[in-house]
Amino acid sequence: MLPTLCRMNCFGAAKYIAWTKGAGYGDVMNISELKTAVDAEILSQREETIKLAFRLASIPEAGFEEFETMKELERQLAACGVKAEVGLARTGIRATIGPAGAPNLVLLADMDALPTRGAPNDIMHSCGHHAQMSIMLAVFSALHALGIPEKLGFRLSLVGAPAEEYTHLDERKALRVKGEIRYLSGKQELIRLGVFDDAACVIKYHSMADSPERMATVNGTLNGFVAKQALFVGKAAHSGAAPDQGVNALNAAVIALMAIHSQRETFRDSDHIRVHPILKEGGTTVNTVPDRARIETYIRGASIEAIQNAARKVDRALGAGAMAVGASVTVSTTPGYQPFRPSDALGVRLAASAARFLPETAIDLHDYSYASDDIGDVACLVPACQLGFSGFSGTIHSADFKASDPERAYILPGRILADLVLDLGADGGRKAQEIRSAFKPTLDKAAYLAYLDSCFEEKTYSFKD
Protein backbone atom coordinates (compact mmCIF):
# COMPACT_ATOMS: atom_id res chain seq x y z
CA MET A 1 0.00 0.00 0.00
CA LEU A 2 1.28 3.46 -0.87
CA PRO A 3 1.82 5.79 2.09
CA THR A 4 -0.65 8.51 2.98
CA LEU A 5 -0.10 11.36 5.39
CA CYS A 6 -3.60 11.88 6.73
CA ARG A 7 -3.80 10.45 10.21
CA MET A 8 -3.95 11.95 13.70
CA ASN A 9 -1.76 11.17 16.70
CA CYS A 10 -3.37 10.49 20.07
CA PHE A 11 -2.40 13.86 21.54
CA GLY A 12 -3.89 15.71 18.57
CA ALA A 13 -7.05 13.56 18.57
CA ALA A 14 -7.74 14.14 22.26
CA LYS A 15 -7.31 17.89 21.92
CA TYR A 16 -9.46 17.93 18.79
CA ILE A 17 -12.32 16.09 20.51
CA ALA A 18 -12.17 18.47 23.46
CA TRP A 19 -12.00 21.44 21.12
CA THR A 20 -14.99 20.46 18.97
CA LYS A 21 -17.12 20.18 22.10
CA GLY A 22 -16.28 23.75 23.09
CA ALA A 23 -16.93 27.10 21.53
CA GLY A 24 -13.51 27.32 19.92
CA TYR A 25 -9.87 26.56 20.25
CA GLY A 26 -9.36 29.44 22.62
CA ASP A 27 -11.40 27.49 25.18
CA VAL A 28 -8.94 24.60 25.13
CA MET A 29 -5.46 25.92 24.49
CA ASN A 30 -3.57 29.06 23.64
CA ILE A 31 -1.48 29.50 20.49
CA SER A 32 1.61 28.11 22.20
CA GLU A 33 -0.24 24.92 23.10
CA LEU A 34 -1.69 24.80 19.63
CA LYS A 35 1.80 24.95 18.13
CA THR A 36 2.80 22.04 20.34
CA ALA A 37 -0.18 20.02 19.10
CA VAL A 38 0.56 20.71 15.44
CA ASP A 39 4.24 19.97 15.90
CA ALA A 40 3.35 16.64 17.49
CA GLU A 41 1.06 15.89 14.55
CA ILE A 42 3.84 16.56 12.03
CA LEU A 43 6.26 14.40 14.00
CA SER A 44 3.69 11.60 14.09
CA GLN A 45 3.64 11.67 10.27
CA ARG A 46 7.43 11.42 10.03
CA GLU A 47 7.65 8.01 8.37
CA GLU A 48 4.82 8.74 5.95
CA THR A 49 6.37 12.08 4.98
CA ILE A 50 9.72 10.48 4.19
CA LYS A 51 8.08 7.61 2.31
CA LEU A 52 6.08 10.07 0.24
CA ALA A 53 9.25 12.01 -0.62
CA PHE A 54 10.83 8.78 -1.87
CA ARG A 55 7.66 7.90 -3.77
CA LEU A 56 7.65 11.28 -5.52
CA ALA A 57 11.37 10.98 -6.24
CA SER A 58 10.66 7.67 -7.98
CA ILE A 59 8.32 9.28 -10.55
CA PRO A 60 10.30 12.28 -11.86
CA GLU A 61 8.54 14.14 -14.67
CA ALA A 62 9.43 17.14 -16.81
CA GLY A 63 7.60 20.45 -16.55
CA PHE A 64 3.98 20.50 -17.76
CA GLU A 65 4.18 16.68 -17.93
CA GLU A 66 3.81 15.91 -14.20
CA PHE A 67 0.66 13.81 -14.65
CA GLU A 68 1.65 10.95 -12.32
CA THR A 69 2.89 13.44 -9.74
CA MET A 70 -0.43 15.28 -9.90
CA LYS A 71 -2.32 12.01 -9.41
CA GLU A 72 -0.19 11.11 -6.40
CA LEU A 73 -0.84 14.47 -4.74
CA GLU A 74 -4.55 14.15 -5.53
CA ARG A 75 -4.57 10.69 -3.94
CA GLN A 76 -2.85 11.97 -0.82
CA LEU A 77 -5.36 14.78 -0.44
CA ALA A 78 -8.31 12.47 -1.06
CA ALA A 79 -7.03 10.23 1.76
CA CYS A 80 -7.33 13.30 4.00
CA GLY A 81 -10.89 13.88 2.83
CA VAL A 82 -9.92 16.93 0.79
CA LYS A 83 -11.02 17.29 -2.83
CA ALA A 84 -8.45 18.96 -5.06
CA GLU A 85 -8.71 20.92 -8.27
CA VAL A 86 -6.47 19.24 -10.82
CA GLY A 87 -5.27 20.04 -14.32
CA LEU A 88 -4.45 23.67 -13.56
CA ALA A 89 -1.87 24.74 -16.15
CA ARG A 90 -2.07 21.13 -17.41
CA THR A 91 -0.69 19.40 -14.33
CA GLY A 92 -1.03 21.82 -11.41
CA ILE A 93 -3.15 21.08 -8.36
CA ARG A 94 -4.83 23.11 -5.62
CA ALA A 95 -6.69 22.19 -2.45
CA THR A 96 -8.26 24.69 -0.07
CA ILE A 97 -9.72 24.39 3.42
CA GLY A 98 -11.07 26.94 5.87
CA PRO A 99 -13.91 29.46 5.78
CA ALA A 100 -14.71 31.22 2.53
CA GLY A 101 -13.65 34.85 2.37
CA ALA A 102 -11.06 34.55 5.15
CA PRO A 103 -7.40 35.51 4.52
CA ASN A 104 -5.84 32.73 2.45
CA LEU A 105 -2.37 31.38 3.27
CA VAL A 106 -0.91 29.51 0.30
CA LEU A 107 1.60 26.68 0.73
CA LEU A 108 3.36 26.52 -2.63
CA ALA A 109 5.42 23.58 -3.92
CA ASP A 110 7.13 22.89 -7.24
CA MET A 111 6.35 19.60 -8.99
CA ASP A 112 8.76 19.09 -11.87
CA ALA A 113 12.00 17.15 -12.10
CA LEU A 114 15.08 18.16 -14.05
CA PRO A 115 17.01 16.62 -16.96
CA THR A 116 20.07 15.26 -15.13
CA ARG A 117 22.81 13.31 -16.87
CA GLY A 118 23.79 10.23 -14.93
CA ALA A 119 20.36 9.75 -13.35
CA PRO A 120 18.06 6.89 -14.42
CA ASN A 121 16.58 7.92 -17.77
CA ASP A 122 18.56 11.17 -17.37
CA ILE A 123 15.86 12.81 -15.25
CA MET A 124 15.55 13.19 -11.47
CA HIS A 125 14.51 15.51 -8.68
CA SER A 126 18.00 17.01 -8.54
CA CYS A 127 16.53 20.31 -7.31
CA GLY A 128 14.63 18.73 -4.43
CA HIS A 129 11.09 19.40 -5.60
CA HIS A 130 10.01 16.01 -4.23
CA ALA A 131 10.94 17.31 -0.78
CA GLN A 132 8.93 20.49 -1.34
CA MET A 133 5.79 18.56 -2.14
CA SER A 134 6.16 16.11 0.73
CA ILE A 135 6.88 18.83 3.29
CA MET A 136 4.06 21.13 2.22
CA LEU A 137 1.60 18.24 2.17
CA ALA A 138 2.71 17.28 5.70
CA VAL A 139 2.03 20.83 6.93
CA PHE A 140 -1.33 20.99 5.16
CA SER A 141 -2.49 17.57 6.38
CA ALA A 142 -1.41 18.23 9.99
CA LEU A 143 -3.34 21.50 10.13
CA HIS A 144 -6.32 19.88 8.45
CA ALA A 145 -6.28 16.87 10.78
CA LEU A 146 -6.69 19.20 13.74
CA GLY A 147 -9.28 21.36 11.99
CA ILE A 148 -7.26 24.47 12.67
CA PRO A 149 -8.13 26.74 9.70
CA GLU A 150 -11.84 26.38 10.40
CA LYS A 151 -11.57 27.14 14.11
CA LEU A 152 -9.02 29.95 13.87
CA GLY A 153 -10.83 31.46 10.92
CA PHE A 154 -8.25 31.50 8.14
CA ARG A 155 -8.11 29.83 4.77
CA LEU A 156 -5.29 27.46 3.79
CA SER A 157 -4.41 26.38 0.25
CA LEU A 158 -1.91 23.82 -0.95
CA VAL A 159 -0.78 24.57 -4.51
CA GLY A 160 1.38 22.24 -6.58
CA ALA A 161 2.95 24.27 -9.39
CA PRO A 162 4.27 22.61 -12.55
CA ALA A 163 7.25 23.60 -14.66
CA GLU A 164 9.48 25.67 -12.39
CA GLU A 165 12.60 24.55 -14.25
CA TYR A 166 12.77 26.57 -17.47
CA THR A 167 13.67 23.65 -19.74
CA HIS A 168 12.27 21.87 -22.81
CA LEU A 169 11.56 25.21 -24.43
CA ASP A 170 10.76 23.77 -27.86
CA GLU A 171 8.14 21.46 -26.34
CA ARG A 172 6.64 24.29 -24.30
CA LYS A 173 6.49 26.55 -27.31
CA ALA A 174 4.59 23.79 -29.11
CA LEU A 175 2.08 23.69 -26.23
CA ARG A 176 1.77 27.46 -26.53
CA VAL A 177 1.05 27.21 -30.26
CA LYS A 178 -1.65 24.61 -29.51
CA GLY A 179 -3.21 26.97 -26.99
CA GLU A 180 -2.65 24.62 -24.04
CA ILE A 181 -0.50 27.17 -22.23
CA ARG A 182 0.18 30.84 -22.76
CA TYR A 183 3.38 31.18 -20.73
CA LEU A 184 6.32 28.83 -20.38
CA SER A 185 6.47 28.44 -16.59
CA GLY A 186 4.02 26.92 -14.20
CA LYS A 187 3.58 29.81 -11.79
CA GLN A 188 3.21 32.26 -14.67
CA GLU A 189 0.33 30.14 -15.94
CA LEU A 190 -1.18 29.83 -12.46
CA ILE A 191 -1.02 33.61 -12.06
CA ARG A 192 -2.81 34.02 -15.39
CA LEU A 193 -5.48 31.53 -14.29
CA GLY A 194 -6.12 33.46 -11.07
CA VAL A 195 -4.82 30.84 -8.65
CA PHE A 196 -3.15 33.48 -6.47
CA ASP A 197 -5.84 36.16 -6.79
CA ASP A 198 -7.19 35.52 -3.28
CA ALA A 199 -3.82 34.88 -1.60
CA ALA A 200 -3.00 36.94 1.48
CA CYS A 201 0.50 35.45 1.74
CA VAL A 202 2.44 32.78 -0.14
CA ILE A 203 4.83 30.46 1.70
CA LYS A 204 7.52 28.44 -0.06
CA TYR A 205 10.40 26.13 0.83
CA HIS A 206 13.47 25.03 -1.14
CA SER A 207 16.08 22.37 -0.49
CA MET A 208 19.77 23.22 -0.41
CA ALA A 209 23.05 21.40 0.03
CA ASP A 210 24.77 21.24 3.40
CA SER A 211 27.35 23.81 4.42
CA PRO A 212 29.64 23.86 7.47
CA GLU A 213 27.52 26.18 9.63
CA ARG A 214 24.43 27.35 7.76
CA MET A 215 21.36 25.14 8.16
CA ALA A 216 18.71 27.50 6.80
CA THR A 217 18.19 30.65 4.78
CA VAL A 218 15.27 33.00 5.29
CA ASN A 219 14.08 35.08 2.35
CA GLY A 220 17.21 34.75 0.26
CA THR A 221 16.82 36.80 -2.91
CA LEU A 222 17.15 35.50 -6.47
CA ASN A 223 17.99 36.77 -9.93
CA GLY A 224 15.44 37.17 -12.68
CA PHE A 225 16.15 36.33 -16.32
CA VAL A 226 15.06 36.23 -19.93
CA ALA A 227 15.78 33.29 -22.24
CA LYS A 228 17.07 33.32 -25.79
CA GLN A 229 17.34 30.70 -28.51
CA ALA A 230 19.46 31.54 -31.55
CA LEU A 231 19.33 29.61 -34.82
CA PHE A 232 22.26 30.26 -37.18
CA VAL A 233 21.70 29.32 -40.82
CA GLY A 234 24.55 29.05 -43.28
CA LYS A 235 25.09 26.94 -46.39
CA ALA A 236 26.12 23.31 -46.62
CA ALA A 237 29.06 22.25 -48.78
CA HIS A 238 31.69 19.51 -48.89
CA SER A 239 33.99 20.32 -45.99
CA GLY A 240 37.05 18.87 -47.75
CA ALA A 241 36.49 19.47 -51.45
CA ALA A 242 34.64 22.80 -51.44
CA PRO A 243 34.48 24.54 -48.05
CA ASP A 244 34.75 27.85 -49.86
CA GLN A 245 31.29 27.23 -51.31
CA GLY A 246 29.70 26.87 -47.87
CA VAL A 247 28.81 29.21 -45.02
CA ASN A 248 29.75 27.66 -41.70
CA ALA A 249 26.92 28.16 -39.20
CA LEU A 250 28.95 26.52 -36.45
CA ASN A 251 31.69 29.10 -36.89
CA ALA A 252 29.06 31.82 -36.63
CA ALA A 253 27.86 30.34 -33.34
CA VAL A 254 31.40 30.01 -31.97
CA ILE A 255 32.18 33.64 -32.84
CA ALA A 256 28.92 34.66 -31.15
CA LEU A 257 29.93 32.77 -28.01
CA MET A 258 33.29 34.53 -27.98
CA ALA A 259 31.56 37.87 -28.48
CA ILE A 260 29.31 37.15 -25.49
CA HIS A 261 32.35 36.32 -23.38
CA SER A 262 33.99 39.56 -24.50
CA GLN A 263 31.09 41.46 -22.92
CA ARG A 264 31.63 40.08 -19.43
CA GLU A 265 33.88 42.89 -18.21
CA THR A 266 31.04 45.32 -18.96
CA PHE A 267 28.64 43.60 -16.54
CA ARG A 268 28.51 45.49 -13.25
CA ASP A 269 29.03 43.37 -10.15
CA SER A 270 26.03 45.00 -8.48
CA ASP A 271 23.77 43.79 -11.30
CA HIS A 272 24.62 40.12 -10.59
CA ILE A 273 24.59 39.25 -14.29
CA ARG A 274 24.92 35.64 -15.36
CA VAL A 275 25.00 34.63 -19.04
CA HIS A 276 25.61 30.91 -19.58
CA PRO A 277 24.96 29.72 -23.14
CA ILE A 278 25.05 26.15 -24.39
CA LEU A 279 25.49 24.90 -27.96
CA LYS A 280 22.46 22.77 -28.84
CA GLU A 281 23.34 21.95 -32.46
CA GLY A 282 26.46 22.34 -34.57
CA GLY A 283 26.30 20.22 -37.69
CA THR A 284 25.25 16.73 -38.73
CA THR A 285 28.43 15.24 -40.22
CA VAL A 286 32.08 16.20 -40.08
CA ASN A 287 32.23 15.83 -43.87
CA THR A 288 29.78 18.68 -44.46
CA VAL A 289 30.09 22.37 -43.67
CA PRO A 290 27.47 22.90 -40.92
CA ASP A 291 24.52 24.82 -42.30
CA ARG A 292 22.70 25.02 -38.93
CA ALA A 293 23.80 25.74 -35.38
CA ARG A 294 21.79 26.57 -32.30
CA ILE A 295 22.60 28.36 -29.06
CA GLU A 296 20.37 28.59 -26.01
CA THR A 297 21.04 30.88 -23.06
CA TYR A 298 19.58 32.69 -20.09
CA ILE A 299 20.49 36.26 -19.25
CA ARG A 300 20.09 36.60 -15.48
CA GLY A 301 20.28 39.72 -13.36
CA ALA A 302 19.20 41.43 -10.18
CA SER A 303 16.74 43.79 -11.88
CA ILE A 304 14.69 43.91 -15.06
CA GLU A 305 16.71 46.93 -16.23
CA ALA A 306 20.01 45.09 -15.76
CA ILE A 307 18.65 42.03 -17.54
CA GLN A 308 17.44 44.06 -20.51
CA ASN A 309 20.77 45.88 -20.78
CA ALA A 310 22.72 42.62 -20.79
CA ALA A 311 20.24 41.07 -23.23
CA ARG A 312 20.89 43.82 -25.77
CA LYS A 313 24.61 43.02 -25.59
CA VAL A 314 23.88 39.34 -26.14
CA ASP A 315 21.74 40.17 -29.18
CA ARG A 316 24.59 42.19 -30.65
CA ALA A 317 27.00 39.33 -30.04
CA LEU A 318 24.70 36.84 -31.75
CA GLY A 319 24.34 39.14 -34.74
CA ALA A 320 28.11 39.66 -34.85
CA GLY A 321 28.68 35.93 -35.22
CA ALA A 322 26.34 35.75 -38.19
CA MET A 323 27.82 38.88 -39.75
CA ALA A 324 31.36 37.57 -39.51
CA VAL A 325 30.75 34.56 -41.76
CA GLY A 326 27.85 35.82 -43.88
CA ALA A 327 25.16 33.71 -42.22
CA SER A 328 21.78 34.60 -40.78
CA VAL A 329 20.60 34.25 -37.21
CA THR A 330 17.09 34.19 -35.81
CA VAL A 331 16.93 35.15 -32.15
CA SER A 332 13.85 34.05 -30.23
CA THR A 333 13.34 35.70 -26.84
CA THR A 334 10.93 34.42 -24.19
CA PRO A 335 10.12 35.80 -20.73
CA GLY A 336 11.98 34.13 -17.92
CA TYR A 337 11.32 35.06 -14.31
CA GLN A 338 11.10 38.17 -12.19
CA PRO A 339 13.84 38.75 -9.61
CA PHE A 340 12.66 37.36 -6.27
CA ARG A 341 12.14 40.11 -3.74
CA PRO A 342 10.47 38.49 -0.74
CA SER A 343 8.28 40.24 1.79
CA ASP A 344 10.31 41.71 4.65
CA ALA A 345 7.30 41.49 6.95
CA LEU A 346 6.90 37.78 6.25
CA GLY A 347 10.65 37.31 6.54
CA VAL A 348 10.67 38.63 10.10
CA ARG A 349 8.03 36.11 11.11
CA LEU A 350 9.66 33.26 9.19
CA ALA A 351 12.97 34.01 10.92
CA ALA A 352 11.24 33.92 14.30
CA SER A 353 9.70 30.54 13.48
CA ALA A 354 13.06 29.18 12.34
CA ALA A 355 14.67 30.43 15.55
CA ARG A 356 12.26 28.29 17.57
CA PHE A 357 13.96 25.21 16.15
CA LEU A 358 17.49 26.35 15.28
CA PRO A 359 20.27 28.39 16.84
CA GLU A 360 20.28 31.87 15.32
CA THR A 361 23.85 31.34 14.12
CA ALA A 362 22.57 28.60 11.80
CA ILE A 363 20.08 30.92 10.05
CA ASP A 364 21.31 33.04 7.13
CA LEU A 365 19.22 36.19 6.74
CA HIS A 366 21.31 37.75 3.97
CA ASP A 367 21.62 35.10 1.27
CA TYR A 368 21.73 36.23 -2.36
CA SER A 369 21.60 33.50 -4.95
CA TYR A 370 22.31 34.11 -8.63
CA ALA A 371 19.82 31.37 -9.48
CA SER A 372 16.22 32.07 -10.49
CA ASP A 373 12.76 30.76 -9.62
CA ASP A 374 9.29 31.77 -10.73
CA ILE A 375 8.44 32.45 -7.10
CA GLY A 376 9.80 35.86 -8.12
CA ASP A 377 6.78 36.31 -10.38
CA VAL A 378 4.39 35.50 -7.56
CA ALA A 379 6.25 37.78 -5.14
CA CYS A 380 5.91 40.83 -7.38
CA LEU A 381 2.13 40.52 -6.98
CA VAL A 382 1.56 39.00 -3.53
CA PRO A 383 3.59 38.94 -0.28
CA ALA A 384 5.78 35.84 -0.37
CA CYS A 385 8.56 34.27 1.67
CA GLN A 386 10.86 31.30 1.20
CA LEU A 387 12.68 29.03 3.62
CA GLY A 388 15.84 27.40 2.31
CA PHE A 389 16.89 24.34 4.26
CA SER A 390 19.81 21.94 4.28
CA GLY A 391 19.89 18.19 4.72
CA PHE A 392 21.17 17.35 1.24
CA SER A 393 24.62 16.43 -0.02
CA GLY A 394 26.14 16.74 -3.46
CA THR A 395 25.61 19.52 -5.96
CA ILE A 396 22.14 20.85 -6.72
CA HIS A 397 21.09 20.09 -10.33
CA SER A 398 23.51 17.15 -10.37
CA ALA A 399 22.99 13.38 -10.15
CA ASP A 400 24.80 13.29 -6.79
CA PHE A 401 22.24 15.56 -5.08
CA LYS A 402 20.53 13.48 -2.41
CA ALA A 403 19.22 13.65 1.15
CA SER A 404 22.00 13.20 3.70
CA ASP A 405 19.92 13.88 6.82
CA PRO A 406 16.23 12.88 6.47
CA GLU A 407 15.24 14.87 9.55
CA ARG A 408 16.53 18.13 8.08
CA ALA A 409 15.64 17.25 4.50
CA TYR A 410 12.01 16.25 5.08
CA ILE A 411 10.77 16.94 8.63
CA LEU A 412 12.24 20.03 10.29
CA PRO A 413 11.28 22.48 7.49
CA GLY A 414 7.63 21.50 7.87
CA ARG A 415 7.74 22.10 11.61
CA ILE A 416 9.09 25.61 11.00
CA LEU A 417 6.53 26.40 8.31
CA ALA A 418 3.62 25.12 10.40
CA ASP A 419 4.75 27.43 13.19
CA LEU A 420 4.70 30.32 10.72
CA VAL A 421 1.22 29.43 9.45
CA LEU A 422 -0.13 29.45 12.99
CA ASP A 423 1.38 32.87 13.67
CA LEU A 424 -0.12 34.27 10.49
CA GLY A 425 -3.44 32.46 10.83
CA ALA A 426 -4.19 33.31 14.46
CA ASP A 427 -7.18 35.53 15.19
CA GLY A 428 -8.82 34.97 11.83
CA GLY A 429 -5.62 35.48 9.86
CA ARG A 430 -5.21 39.00 11.21
CA LYS A 431 -1.44 39.18 10.78
CA ALA A 432 -1.61 37.75 7.28
CA GLN A 433 -4.23 40.30 6.29
CA GLU A 434 -2.20 43.14 7.79
CA ILE A 435 0.82 42.10 5.73
CA ARG A 436 -1.32 41.82 2.60
CA SER A 437 -2.91 45.23 3.14
CA ALA A 438 0.46 46.94 3.62
CA PHE A 439 2.07 45.20 0.64
CA LYS A 440 2.95 47.28 -2.43
CA PRO A 441 3.18 45.09 -5.53
CA THR A 442 5.88 45.73 -8.10
CA LEU A 443 3.24 45.37 -10.82
CA ASP A 444 -0.47 44.81 -10.88
CA LYS A 445 -1.62 41.62 -12.56
CA ALA A 446 -2.60 43.25 -15.85
CA ALA A 447 0.75 45.05 -16.15
CA TYR A 448 2.60 41.87 -15.21
CA LEU A 449 0.89 39.82 -17.92
CA ALA A 450 1.47 42.62 -20.43
CA TYR A 451 5.17 42.54 -19.56
CA LEU A 452 5.32 38.80 -20.17
CA ASP A 453 3.57 39.20 -23.51
CA SER A 454 6.02 41.92 -24.55
CA CYS A 455 8.98 39.60 -23.93
CA PHE A 456 7.95 37.14 -26.64
CA GLU A 457 9.97 38.37 -29.58
CA GLU A 458 11.66 36.96 -32.67
CA LYS A 459 14.17 38.82 -34.83
CA THR A 460 16.21 37.70 -37.82
CA TYR A 461 19.54 39.24 -38.78
CA SER A 462 20.72 38.20 -42.25
CA PHE A 463 24.18 38.85 -43.64
CA LYS A 464 24.11 36.40 -46.52
CA ASP A 465 25.71 37.55 -49.77
Automatic annotation (TrEMBL):
* Cellular component aspect of the GO annotation: cytoplasm
Kindly state which keywords UniProt assigns to this record, in alphabetical order: Hydrolase
Q: Where is the Peptidase M20 dimerisation domain?
A: 232-317
InterPro entries the record matches: Bact_exopeptidase_dim_dom, Peptidase_M20, Peptidase_M20/M20A_hydrolases, Peptidase_M20_dimer
Pfam families attached to this UniProt entry: M20_dimer, Peptidase_M20
Give this protein's Gene Ontology molecular function annotations.
dipeptidase activity; para-aminobenzoyl-glutamate hydrolase activity
Q: What is this protein called?
A: Peptidase M20
